[in-house]
Specification:
about 55 residues; mainly alpha; rod-shaped; ATP synthase F0 subunit 8; membrane; mitochondrion; transmembrane helix
Length: about 55
Amino acid sequence: MPQLDFFWWGFSFFFCWLFFLFLYLYLLNYKLFFLNSISFSGSFSSFSGLCSSLWLW
């Protein structure tokens, strides 16, 4: 049944890209959290506290 094959291909394709999107967002937020905890010290301490706890979702 080609209709079922096409549906299953679209379903797998969608969830594969959804997984990579969440992985990208997780790694991006982890990088931002790591950089904010290191670079913003001193006068930007309140700003770094705000940004380090701020995630994209």
